[in-house]
């Protein structure tokens, strides 16, 4: 009986060891997603602060960014568990997953939670832009050409990305 328990325990060790890197990689990628979403939220907030009439388009833009990044979060975890070859884990974290339009469309046709997330992102990519999209992009360009205007959120983002890059998954 003890021998069976020892054998069973030994058999489980490799899967526990293999699970640790996947958890680390997933956590690292999730932190990147969260940092990116926070950056876009801050950028929209600054743009709307300067031009309150951009609030509606800013919320529309953020919704699209959320769909995009949440799809990437879900897809990353799916590929990590099912098809690691799709991931470029030797590159910086922001390059670990590269979904083409064709990939997103194929995923959107699945009847799963991942498929639902892909459908939201795919529909965003296919939809007509918000009428104030150009005005929002111009506001972003204005903010980005004056680094002092975005210093605090940019430093926060850069600090988070530096900390994320320092995470080593074995």
UniProtKB/TrEMBL annotation:
Signal keyword on record: yes
Keywords on record: Signal
Domain of life of the source: Bacteria
Signal peptide (residue range): 1-19
Protein's name in the database: Lipoprotein
Species for this entry: Photobacterium gaetbulicola Gung47
Phylogenetic placement of the source organism: Bacteria, Pseudomonadati, Pseudomonadota, Gammaproteobacteria, Vibrionales
């Amino acid at each position: 009986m003890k021998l069976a328990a020892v054998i069973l325990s030994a058999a489980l060790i490799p899967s526990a060891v293999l699970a640790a890197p996947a958890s680390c990689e997933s956590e690292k990628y999730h932190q990147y997603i969260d940092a990116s979403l926070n950056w876009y939220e801050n950028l929209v907030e600054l743009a709307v602060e300067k031009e309150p009439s951009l609030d509606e388009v800013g919320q529309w833009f953020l919704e699209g960014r959320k769909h995009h990044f949440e799809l990437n979060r879900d897809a990353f975890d799916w590929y990590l568990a099912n098809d690691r070859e799709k991931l470029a884990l030797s590159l910086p974290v922001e390059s670990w997953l590269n979904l083409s339009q064709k990939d997103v469309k194929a995923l959107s046709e699945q009847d799963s939670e991942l498929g639902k997330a892909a459908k939201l992102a795919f529909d965003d990519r296919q939809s007509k832009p918000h009428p104030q999209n150009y005005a929002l992009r111009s506001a972003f360009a204005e903010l980005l050409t004056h680094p002092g205007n975005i210093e605090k959120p940019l430093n926060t983002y850069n600090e988070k990305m530096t900390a994320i890059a320092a995470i080593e998954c074995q």
